[in-house]
Design a protein that fits this description.
The structure is a homodimer of 342-residue chains. By secondary structure, chain A is α/β, with parallel strands linked by helices. Helix content of chain A is 44%, strand content 15%. In chain A, helix 5 crosses helix 13 (298-315) and helix 10 (229-239) crosses helix 11 (252-264). The structure holds a DNA duplex (30 and 30 nucleotides).
DNA sequence: CACAGTTTTGGAAGCGCTTCCAATCACTAC
DNA sequence: GTAGTGATTGGAAGCGCTTCCAAAACTGTG
């Protein structure tokens, strides 16, 4: 017991070679049942546990994957989205016996510092990286390295990237179509930062729905927010003078702000202005009125991202994987309808 | 270039031994400047980066620390507190060139699975663990293992634990004293789960302030919530019939719910009921009226936790470290006073 | 009972690095 | 010119595991 407890020691006590002990440890074949039994007993008795780092070095895989959140995303950690996503990813890691390493870049310096560490094969078996703003080249650089990578969210101009995303266009389209079916004509949009593909895609879905109903996209009814409560509030204040009769807001957090601005203006939702949102995270049910919103399966999204990554790790990067997850309209109170019209 | 790029290879190209190359890599002493220069050039030219796992194995330290969030805490990931804390911890890790591994337990099974992995020296150089509910024995077990550990939050009955906490008692005391100075007599409390030391301590501060003003603690004015918006809402609904003229709510998220319940009852804040909160996270400024609240330095808390841990790693566990961080009353609108009375 | 074929086993070579220690070297002081 | 000093260097032994490969021990067959 006083000796360092290594596999050698276990093997010695069980009267076998280290090789055999290793086989038992890894459920390898070609070990006589009674021998396996004996080794197992020694392991149990001594409480031996293998040294994970030694295993990593010898087997050339660490069983660790990294979650990389580019800078600026971190500001969004206020949004319940990232915590939820992280939870899904963590869960999947547990379930598959992987350890999760978290890389939150807070500034450019972090990025410089991280890149060597994560792109070097060894520490990480693979990476899930959240898309950041358009123009970030971290993803591109990562894809050049030989570390298996899955992008969460649609990256721009990365034909070979493995990525997973929700169907933002379809989701926004459904949301706005719902408003149109309810008879709204002057539908405004609070878009979220246009430097993200999520905002762009949701905006595209908004435009598509309007066009299908032969309505023009009125630029004065479109306002960019910052995916936060304040962002939604400020955007809504700028939109109010243009008298929209409905609003499509690209995130629940922004919707909260929008509601606040609307109430401050003495108007009520959904009577004066209907609101349809995107996310279906806790703010949606906390808001008064509760938000009709596009549900996106954030937790499942995280789980799936990890599973994709493990697939890439196991079976190589070709062909590139694409997964688009469906969203769903959840009818609550902020549109005045309690029945889906689609 | 086609060869695997190891330190051996670098050494060979620079015409030195691997030992010397290693010295250069680690800024070791006793290398002639010109030799160092030469090795450095080869490293730059080849883009060599050391294999972190090999370094860990040889040096017996991984430069990885773990953040452990016990189960049930994960439910609180909706609260902005944990994301913020995580951010602080991540930041500090970056700054000190440590990698952060995240262990979020979602169920008991996770706990069983994690324990062997994290308590085994090797993967982790140390652990920051968030206190969970009273009765969780994970912390106790972890403290028995020889992995350096710092507890975030006050653990119960762990005399030797290194821990860091905010001064919850003093904070709550300040909050309630503020209400008392404003002339309130029937001050209610929404406490948060009493199975956490944070809730217990804040409640203790509440009681202490009342007692100092010779007021009894009226049990009908105290209600346990769940540290969420809904929790605060429900607690407030139960409190309203007892006609409090002020409320001390143990978290901003709960305060949001309390405000909602108060407004639904047709009362206004601060006119009919004053509210003082705890946390000073984003909900505090989003709320209408904005919350007068006890600011706790969450980010700095995370940073400090990591720094304590690094200290323990470096200098050993004795003597046990204790850090209590100060809180601060932030006066906003929900108490009717725009001036501090303390 | 010998032989080919299959399991089971252990020796030994790594994985890529750190670090102890002894050897070498360049000086200074005598 | 030589012993003594400290700075520099490299050989070699690990760190604790996996895995290749050859040897040993079985199995069944003719």
């Amino acid at each position: 017991m006083t000796d360092k407890l290594t596999l050698d020691e276990v093997a010695k006590r069980a009267g076998v070679s280290r090789t055999t002990a290793s086989r038992v440890l890894n459920d390898g074949p070609n070990v006589r049942p009674e021998v396996r039994e004996r080794v197992l007993r020694v392991i149990a008795e001594t409480g031996y546990r293998p040294h994970p780092v030694a295993q990593s070095l010898a087997s050339q895989q660490s069983h660790v994957i990294g979650l990389v959140l580019p800078r600026r995303t971190e500001a969004l950690f206020n949004d319940p989205y990232f915590p939820r996503l992280t939870q899904g990813i963590a869960q999947a890691c547990n379930d598959h016996d992987y350890t999760l390493a978290l890389f939150m870049m807070q500034c450019e310096a972090d990025e410089q510092k991280f890149y060597p560490r994560i792109s070097r094969k060894g520490l990480l078996d693979g990476i899930v990286i959240q898309v950041g703003q358009i123009g970030d080249d971290l993803i591109a650089r990562l894809l050049e390295s030989d570390v298996p990578t899955v992008v969460a969210g649609r990256p721009l101009n990365q034909p070979n990237a493995n990525y997973i995303d929700v169907d933002n266009i379809a989701g926004a389209h459904t949301a706005v179509t719902h408003l149109l079916h309810l008879g709204h004509k002057r539908i405004g949009a609070i878009t979220g930062e246009m430097r993200t593909t999520a905002a762009l895609d949701r905006y595209a879905g908004y435009c598509k729905a309007l066009q299908e109903h032969d309505l023009p996209v009125d630029e004065t009814l479109v306002c960019e927010g910052y995916f936060t409560e304040i962002g939604g509030y400020e955007a809504m204040r700028r939109l109010l003078p243009h008298k929209p009769d409905a609003i499509f807001s690209a995130s629940d957090a922004m919707s909260l702000g929008a509601l606040r601005a609307i109430h401050e203006a003495g108007l009520t939702v959904p009577h004066d202005i209907a609101v349809v949102s995107f996310d279906d995270l806790p703010p949606a049910t906390i808001a008064r009125p509760q938000l009709t919103t596009i549900h996106q399966p954030v937790h499942a999204f995280g789980v799936k991202a990890v599973e994709m990554l493990l697939d890439v790790i196991k079976n190589g990067p070709t062909p590139p994987r694409r997964v688009i997850m469906e969203t769903e309209l959840v009818i609550r109170e902020s549109c005045g309808s309690t029945q889906s019209k689609t």
